[in-house]
Each structure stands twice: as C-alpha cells, then as structure tokens.
Amino acid sequence: MAQTLRKPEIIGIARREGKVTVDGLVDHFGVTPQTIRRELKELSDTGELERVHGGAVLPSTTMNIGYSERLGMKQADKVDIARKCAEEIPSNCSIFLNIGTTTEAVASELLNHEGLLVVTNNINIAPILATNPNIEVVVTGGNLRRSDGGLIGDLAIQTIKQFRFDYAVIGCSALHEDGDILDFDIQEVGASKTIIQQSKHVFLAADSSKFERRAPAKIANVSEMDIFFTDKTPPPPFANFCKNHDTQIQLS
Amino acid sequence: MAQTLRKPEIIGIARREGKVTVDGLVDHFGVTPQTIRRELKELSDTGELERVHGGAVLPSTTMNIGYSERLGMKQADKVDIARKCAEEIPSNCSIFLNIGTTTEAVASELLNHEGLLVVTNNINIAPILATNPNIEVVVTGGNLRRSDGGLIGDLAIQTIKQFRFDYAVIGCSALHEDGDILDFDIQEVGASKTIIQQSKHVFLAADSSKFERRAPAKIANVSEMDIFFTDKTPPPPFANFCKNHDTQIQLS
DNA sequence: TATAATATACTCATTTATTAGCATAAATAT
DNA sequence: ATATTTATGCTAATAAATGAGTATATTATA
Q: Rounded distance, CA A209 to CA A103, Å?
C-alpha cells in the first residue's frame, strides 16, 4: 500500500474535527478531488477512516456501533463536547477515562496536552493516546465487553483503587430525567462508584440523545458530578436537578 | 554541515511537524535532493522515519496501523506456526497469550475453538478474539507499551497471579543459541516468570528470524517450555539444548 | 417516482519523484 | 605525500503520484 505525506495529516484532521470532507481536504492540500478520494479510499481500506459520501469519518473504534450513529452530526457533536471537556483539564495531571464513545473523543482532544497520566477501562482509548509519547497510558484489567470495548468486573475495580485521579470523565448509555446516570451493564456500577470515590473532579460527558435512551443499571447520579458536558440544554427536570445539586452544565 | 549533524535535526523537524519533505530539507540545509534522499533512506532503514513519496513521516507504530492491514501483514509462516500451536490447544480450557505478533496470529487461529477463557497482556488480541462470543476475553491491566501494544509492569503481574492457565503461549523479541528467550524490555521478565509459574503447559511461538535478532532482557529459557513452535529447524546448539531439556520442537 | 445535481470509480497521459551508477571533492588513515 | 574512505553531486533510466476525461452511482429535489 502506498503511503503519502498527506495521510497522517488527514487522520489528524479527522481526529480533531470528527470528520473530513473531500472539498475541505482539496482546499487544504491544494490537490484535486480524485487524489483526495484515492487517499480516503486507501485509508478506509486499512480501517483508519471510514468512507462516507462527501468525505470520511473516524471509524467508531467501538466494536459494533451502527453505521448511522457514526455519521455526521452525532460525531461532530461529540467532538464539540469533548473539546469543551478537554479544555477544563490542565496538563500535568492524572485522569481517568471510562467507557463510551464520548470519552474516546475526549481522549483525542487530550492529545495536545502534556505530562498526563491517563488510566482507562476503555480499550479503544489506548491506541488513540499511544500516538502522543508525552502521555503515560495505563489500561485497567478486566473482562472484555464486546459491545463497546469496555473492561469490566472486579479486575477493573482493583486497578482503579490503586490510583488517585485529579479528573475523571464518565460516559454513559442513558440519562434519566430524575438525574440518574445509566449503563446497560450492572457490573459497571462498582467501577463508576470507585472512580468517583478516587477522583477530585468528576465530569460527565454525554450528548443529548442519551435522554432518549433507556438502560437498566444506575451507575451514579448527576449530583455526584462537578460538570455535565453536553450539546443541548437538558430537559427542565434534569436541569433543575443539576442546579439544586451544584452540578454545572457546560453546553458546547 | 556534516551528515551526523543533519540527521538529528531531520528527526527533530519530523517530530515537530509530523512530516518532512525532500524539497523542504533541500532548502533548509542547502544540499541537493539526492543527499537528502540518501539520509531519509538511512533513517528509514533504521526505523527512525518512514519514507513516503516526496518526503518522510513519523513511523506508524503497530498501534496505529489499521486493523485490516495488521491482519494482512501476518506472513504465511507466522500463520502456519500459529495454526500448529492452536491445534495443540483443546476447547474448554484457560489460556494465556502474551506479547508479540505471533501470539496475535495464535489468537486468530483460536477463533474456531469453543468455551475458552483467554487472558492476555497484548491489547491487540482483544479485538481479534472479540469476534467470537464463545471466548471469554480478559485483558490484564498494565502500562501501555507503545511499540507493540503490550501491557507491562506490576499491574499486569497482579492480574496474571489471579489465574491458573491450562496453556500459555509466549512470544518474544529474540532467541539466543544458548536457549535464552529475550525481550527488549526488562519489565517483561516478571510477567513471563509469573505466566510460566501459573501454567500447566507452556508453549513458545517464534519464527526463525528471531535467531538473528538481539534483545537485552532474558525473560525465560527454552528449557522451561514444553513445546517450541517455529518454521525452520533451529541452529544446532539450540536444537540440542531443547533435546537435552525435553522441549519438543514442532515445525510447521 | 422521476429528474437534476453531486459525488465517485476507472483508465490513461502527464508530471514529478526516486533509484542507480559514476565522477568529484573533502576528510582520514597509512 | 599518497592511498583510502566518506560525503556529495550529476545524469539517465525507472517508478510513482497526480490530474483530466468519462461512465457510473448516490443523494437531493420536484
């Protein structure tokens, strides 16, 4: 396979923006669309990007998310949320990133930070952060959850207990109007409890679609969070609940 | 300027910019393109940069390489070694797979087994095995080694100690004629000792090119292995050593 | 559903980069 | 001082990337 000077930069742009467009890359590099298309095709052949009409998006690094969810808006929203979240995190500190595609986006946004120690139970985050040698990456042990690459169970909790974090970024499967943070797996409850206990600042990062989802396991309550990063003003009951419990809402 | 002074600067520029162009370096150093090309070729031969048409980019570590490319990369002999190795492992048992691309090939060959519990400190193995729901996958914790996606250090050892394995498959960076099994990282020593200690049967899987490699850390000795899976008859001193220590050699 | 507007895949000519072999000049060793 | 190694530059042949034209596929719109 041919390698070119442009490919790493295309991937970099995709990581920052969540997506790339053929037109955008044409302007950026000053080459013709067919050249860009050729390279996007090659990047998609190797699995580094995923081709869509008009451009390409980051492959959902999670293992089985539907095509539609990866496209366009959702991913762009996630990148915006992730950027705001990463802005609140300084260099030279310790961070925990847990499961969820939003925390993966946060990982990408942290690539420009320095002197970080990042611990994660999300196996997809490891290759993202591996590109920056200034970030020490620790993966917790655990049983692999196929649906999203999460590492769960007692092994994960054991590892988390051995650290203290300056910041923790929590993702979730669903949000309930009464303030509950939900996951589809009961095993994640113990992990999130431990994370919150070991962390000075706890952030929740979740896009507004999570309010329309259902999930069985309550892993935490938004009152335990310091900041909730999201894309749209949450439903009034949830927003009021946040206000009453000193949880800041940060819109992007 | 002498060549020895130019090379570090080229690498420096590449680290800052992510890439270097032949033309750019020609302007920068005031030499001809062929001089630059020669040096880029040397830097690419030593693995410090990756040559591309028009310049060079930072080498993509195995971590960054796309999934399908990684699969295609596996040479036929590695697959053959892996197949023989997987044939010796029954269904319904517990297995440890450690670092190395050969153990990744073994993982692929295990996909048709059933009722396996696979524990690994190789992060690349998780997505391979995730495709078969009949295999329970456990990832050890540990510090991420960027060069190959290995999880190393005390966290990994802690996890390994909590299991007993029916089979362990060991990979390595290099093999020495006197029977020593070598890795480039001293931290892997503890892990491999623990693996051997916890396992009923220990297999070494390594292609013959490992005899031509050098690595500093002795992680084990082939006398501790039950079977050595490889593609060609090893050098006579090594073969004799195996014979004297009841280590079976299995050629593919 | 039909139609228009984009976007894409494919092939081939053109441009550009690369390799290889040889010549020259500087640095080092004998 | 002379030979030898090493770095560099030149030219021609080779290889690779690019861009243009055209046919096809996809998405948007009436």
A: 15
B44 touches strand D (CB under 7 A): no
Max CA pair span of chain B: 65
Pick the CATH number of A76-251 from 3.40.50.620, 1.10.150.120, 3.60.15.10, 3.40.50.1360: 3.40.50.1360
pTM of the model: 0.79
pLDDT band of residue A69 (cuts 50, 70, 90) is very low
A179: left (phi over 0), alpha (psi -120 to 50) or beta: left
φ, ψ (nearest 5 deg) of residue B135: -115, 125
For residue B29, what pLDDT is reported? 85
pLDDT of residue A60: 60
Cβ B34 to strand D below 7 Å: yes
Instruction: Fold for B3-57, please state it.
Output: Arc Repressor Mutant, subunit A (1.10.10)
Question: Which residue stretches of chain B have pLDDT < 70?
Answer: 1-4, 60-75
Tokens of B150: 């290995």
Interchain proximity A126–B144, CB inside 8 Å: yes
CB-CB under 8 Å, A5 with B52: yes
